[in-house]
Amino acid sequence: MSSVIVRDVSLNFGAVEVLRSLNLDVAEGEFIVLLGPSGCGKSTLLNCIAGLLDVSQGQIFIKGKNVTWEEPKDRGIGMVFQSYALYPQMTVEGNLSFGLKNAGLPRDEIAKRVARASEILQIQPLLQRKPAALSGGQRQRVAIGRALVRDVDVFLFDEPLSNLDAKLRSELRVEIKRLHQKLANTMIYVTHDQIEALTLADRIAVMKGGVIQQLDGPQAIYNRPVNRFVAGFIGSPGMNFLEGQVSRDGAPGFLVGDLRIPLDRYEFSVANAAGAASLGIRPEHVALDEAGAAMPFSLETVVEIVEPMGSDTLVWTTLGGHNFTFRAPSERTLRLRERVTIGFDPARASLFDAGTDMRL
Amino acid sequence: MADQATASSVAGFDAVRAPASEAWGPRPRRALSRRNIIIYGTLTVVALYYLLPLYVMIVTSLKGMPEIRMGNIFSPPMEITFEPWVKAWATACTGLNCEGLSRGFWNSVRITVPSVIISILIASVNGYALANWRFRGADIFFTILIVGAFIPYQVMIYPIVIILREMGLYGTLTGLVMVHTIFGMPILTLLFRNYFASVPEELFKAARVDGAGFWAIYFKIMLPMSLPIFVVAVILQITGIWNDFLFGVVYTKPDVYPMTVQLNNIVNSVQGVKEYNVNMAATLLTGLVPLIVYFISGKLFVRGIAAGAVKG
Fold first, then answer.
1. pLDDT of amino acid B158
2. Cβ contact A154:A77 at 8 Å
3. Confidence of residue A44 (pLDDT cuts 50, 70, 90)
4. Which of B205, B212, B224 sits opposite A81 (nearest CB)?
5. What pLDDT is attached to residue B14?
6. Beta strand pairing call for A203-208 and A31-35
7. Could you say which of A188, A239, B17, B174 has the lowest number of CB atoms within 10 Å?
């Protein structure tokens, strides 16, 4: 059964179209991440689901009920905001119980739920403190708790970790994942951070210009992006793109500069694709030295820039007249202008039409 | 001053004697630099400029008439007397009644307190609605309200006289309270709107998700956060309404005249001797209320203004 259904939702602010006839089905207990650059409409979509923004067209269902015209409190959602949005004049306990008091719950029920949520999130010692006396991570935990006490069906997260430093972010990320496994609630999570998206999501919806570009599992999004935008957005460092021609003379091949990259192992999505195209290869799919020479396609090239990143080293070079980066193991010492052999398997590459940017 | 001078000369001596003249630690600052002289000099002159008249008023109000007639307005009183103060408060004559300023004082209290409370309550709700609930036509409503702040009062005096007459409120305190409430509305609404607009929007959204409605968000979330801006509004309104003369003299009758109007009548009465000491005491008494308000809440006032200025 679907937990949240977004059907043909559009949203306009005057002449500006923020969401364009958008459809999204979220299964019960699923963790969906809305991922995209700023201004792609992901937070707007979340606000529409929450009921904080009225849609211009379309419907929203939560648990099979049409909630398009319902107030946020009646939709069975809890929301966690980027800036925590804790009520500064209330204690942690006051923050947690505010929604329950508004709903008119009996006092012992409120106490029970606050106790349970604070136990799950391990914030019992903080209950009598004001938000100003909490650290960023503790504040975000309280904000999650505020959604937790309301016993909602759907959790909405609006970039909840963006205000935290890198270390805390990875800690809380794990905690959110643990929380999801424990509660098995439906969660919709907005972020621009692809690591958060890839690590947390059951499915990722990559958005751009108010449209979902691709909705799929993290592996599929990473390995088989449907268009060039998704391919370039996911992955860090970004994918290499080589502009060239798909040739069908004999075995299919990709012509870039004076190179010919064989495509007979590539799984085409479109039959008989040919003509101008770009070939995308992830830096981490390129092998070096003997391993590179053993790949279906290999060549010799010159090291131009070396960026040591600790766990591995990012190397800049040129391939067919294009800048080309690849990851080398950190124990392999590379000197500037050193000639090295690199290679990759075209089966792991992605091919996009030069005109439509769609996967070939 | 002498202490400062010695301190600086000692520091200067040390700097010369220290052989290693390499820069180390905090940069040396001289107490008597040109910059400090200009800053403190200007401040002193300006302070004197404003304090001198106050000094003359206080000194004169404590003198007896014979001493005033000697004409040394800057000299301190040879014989301090509080009689002028007592007379100004209790027995100075305005026209027929001789009750002093006391009646005007209580009239002013009865005008100021309800005007301040009502205008701030309404304006804060206005500002909250305009900042957080973007209802249809909110922008037009706000524009009209702000335009109201730029129309000179004098244009509206006569129309309001007619309105009050038709409502049967002309010459009453209720009518004057209403006028003050209405005229405080544009600037107060602007003040509150800008303050509430600086409150993070996510806080408001979170409260909506938590099931709080219009009034619950106002009373439980917004009000507790906005003490500084309420203090600013209270100060603005108390001083504005207490010091008002024009509305008081136009819309009330002699038995409900506010303090300012009565002060004018005492000071400008043409019969008899001009009692400068009583006039000074009466003026000081009238100005005392806003002065006390400033002294009590000055710090909060600055904080509130700054909060609005930085974020709004």
1. 92
2. yes
3. very high
4. B205
5. 52
6. parallel
7. B17
Tokens of residue B149, six digits: 């702040």
Interface of A with B in 156-175 (CB under 8 A): 158
DSSP-derived 3-state class of residue B200: coil
What's the pLDDT score for residue B50? Answer: 93
pLDDT band, very low/low/confident/very high, at B301 (cuts 50, 70, 90): low
Respond yes or no on whether the N-terminal peptide bond of residue B77 is cis (omega within 30° of 0): no
Q: CB contact, 8 Å: B136 with chain A?
A: no
Single out the residue of A196, A195, A240, A275 nearest to residue A346, CA to CA.
A240
Separation CA B299–CA B295 (nearest Å): 8
Please give the interface size between A and B, counted as residue pairs whose CB atoms are below 8 Å apart. 56
Residue with tokens 């998206």: A197
- Contact in structure between A90 and B207 (CB atoms under 8 Å): no
**How far apart, in Å, are the Cα atoms of B288 and each of A269, B112, B300?**
86, 14, 19
**Helices (DSSP H) in chain A: which residue ranges?**
42-50, 92-102, 107-120, 136-148, 166-183, 194-200, 218-223, 228-233, 289-293
Q: Which of B42-51, B95-104, B285-294 is modeled with the greatest confidence?
A: B42-51
- A176-187: per-residue pLDDT in tens? 999 999 889 999
Residue B113 near residue B106, CB atoms below 8 Å:
no
Instruction: Identify whether the C-beta of residue A110 lies closer than 8 Å to the C-beta of residue A100.
Output: yes
| A312-319: strand order across its sheet | A305-308, A312-319, A322-329
> Which residue type is seen at A117?
A
Helices (H), B18-80: 34-61, 65-69
Among A105-109, A256-260, B45-49, B118-122, name the one with the lowest average pLDDT: A256-260
Could you write out the DSSP letters of every residue in B72-139?
A: -TTSPPSS---HHHHIIIII--BTTB--TTHHHHHHHHHHHHHHHHHHHHHHHHHHHHHHH---TTHH
Tokens 């009598």, residue located: A128
At A92-116, the pLDDT tens digits run 999 999 999 999 999 999 999 999 9
pLDDT at B2 (0 to 100): 45
A160 to chain B: closest CA residue:
B202
Contact B216 A102 (CB under 8 A): yes
| Nearest-by-Cβ selection for B206 from A71, A81, A103 | A81
| Chain A contact present for B51, CB below 8 A | no
